[in-house]
Amino acid sequence: MSSPTKRTRKGEHETRLFINGEFVNSATGKTFPCVNPATEEVICQVQEATEEDVNKAVAAARAAFHPTSEWRTMPGSKRRDLLLKLADLVERDAAYLAEIESMDNGKPVAADGKAYGSSVDLHLVIQCIRYYAGWADKITARPFPPTPRRSSTPGASPSVCAPSSFLGTFLCSWRLGSSLLALLAAAR
Q1: Is there a single domain that holds both residue 127 and residue 188?
Q2: Are 32 and 88 part of one and the same domain?
Q3: What average pLDDT is seen over the chain?
Q4: Residues 123-175: pLDDT tens digits?
Q5: SS3 breakdown of the chain: % helix, strand, coil, rounded to 5?
Q6: Which of 72, 77, 79, 94 is least surrounded by Cβ atoms within 10 Å, i.e. has the fewest?
Q7: Cα angle, residue 68 at apex, residues 64 and 74 outer, rounded to 5°
Q8: Other C-beta atoms within 10 Å of 43: how many?
Q9: In b/e form, how buried is each residue of 92-126, taking b as 16+ CB within 10 angstroms?
Q10: Are residues 166 and 174 in contact, defined by beta-carbon separation less than 8 angstroms?
Q11: 110/168 Cα distance (integer angstroms)
């Protein structure tokens, strides 16, 4: 079984799965190597999710979005504040996150702005989180009132279609993020 953390120049980071609000080992304890593609150095051993782990994560996600859950009944302004806090935390630790993201995907950090690198990705992630946080108290999921030209379906909720873009493996807020953040903001 692997150690739950791996030491880097700036500290430790988790290698376990994050399910239902906590870090856990996989059901089998099996791991796989996370390799820096630029140096071929093994950075750490990461827990390998199994079907059982995925089922636990899906069940936790469904419970979190149940109509009576804390998140779904939370006022939009509170969801906004939590998403803004997430953006602030990513911004606070952007240099560290860019370092580990660069080790994971081989892309340069490129903080000088002369090349596209992980620091640019993080800037875009922060912007994306803040954008959807801004919608959290504006999307009510209530149908538009009917008019002579338009009918309204009771209980219908608006669909949010958002672009998705690339970011490395540690921040899924960019791969799945646009859609996920829109869903979190709306919570309806």
Answers
A1: yes
A2: no
A3: 75
A4: 888 999 999 899 888 876 665 566 666 554 444 443 333 332 233 333 444 44
A5: 40, 15, 45
A6: 77
A7: 75
A8: 17
A9: eebeebbbbbbbbbebebbbeeeeebbbbbbebbb
A10: yes
A11: 15
Which residues sit opposite 32 in a β-bridge? 46
Which residue's structure tokens are 């240099």?
Answer: 95
Going by C-alpha positions, the residue among 7, 167, 1 that lies closest to residue 90 is: 167
Q: What does the alpha-carbon distance between residue 157 and residue 147 come to, in Å, rounded to a whole number? A: 17
Place of tokens 């304890």: 29
Q: Are 25 and 6 in contact (CB under 8 A)?
A: no
The H-or-E segment that residue 90 falls in is helix 76-92
Q: What domain range includes position 115?
A: 74-188
Task: Look at residues 31, 27, 23 and name the one whose alpha carbon lies nearest to residue 55.
Answer: 27
Structural domain ending residue among the three candidates 64, 83, 115:
64
DSSP state of 147: B
Amino acid identity at 118? S
Q: Are 13 and 5 in contact (CB under 8 A)?
A: yes
